[in-house]
Amino acid sequence: MVQALDPKEADFVAYVVRASLRRLGPRWALLVLYGRDADRDALHLKLGSPDSVHWLPIVLDGVRRHEVLYNEMAWFRVSLDFWESVPAEFEHLLFLEGDSMVLRGHGCVESFLDFAYVGAPWKDGLGLPAFGGNGGLSLRRRSLCTAAVAHWHAAKTQAERRREFNILAMGEDVLTCRLLQDMGQAFPTGRESAANFSVETVYRPGPCGFHKPWEWLPPHAVADLFASAEMG
Hints:
Radius of gyration: 17 Å
Shape: globular
Order of helices and strands: HEHEEEHHEEEEHHHHEEH
Protein name: DUF5672 domain-containing protein
Distance between the termini: 34 Å
Oligomer: single chain
Mean pLDDT: 91
Pfam family, one: DUF5672
């Protein structure tokens, strides 16, 4: 749920954002989705009140929302409410959740800009696509994702979209990848290539970042990921 942040949560989110932005460098801006104005103001202070932050209030099905459940946030990510509200100058969007982090700069993320979508690859046996990847740390092309979502909205009623969304158990990343694939958009070839971008269930040393690897990988692999973080 997106709700009021307690001070410890706000400190943690601010750390993840600051560390990731430092590694990405000044060419990247920060676009923050928020519910409560008070949370926006508190996080803005903890980030050091940078000028490069753009705040995007959550509007779901045309209604301004101050709190949303987890599945509602996933639904929001495949809505035109979201994609059409992102300013056009932000063509490459790096989705960064609180359990994700950018580990490497120096053009690591930028080497994946030619793809429509890239995230931490899912391993075999989970019933998930071999292309795309987890959305927790994912790089997406705004124009291509907007076109894919707009086509989905035009082709199906809201009830049909809800049924398809619910079948995927709130997997907006799986749905987004399938919509992009249906339009013939480009993904990294092979799990190893995508794991160079982000690690979750498939380990690869020295990726650009990670999403919640401690849920899937042994402690020594997680420790190696943290040790690979660029500190300068």
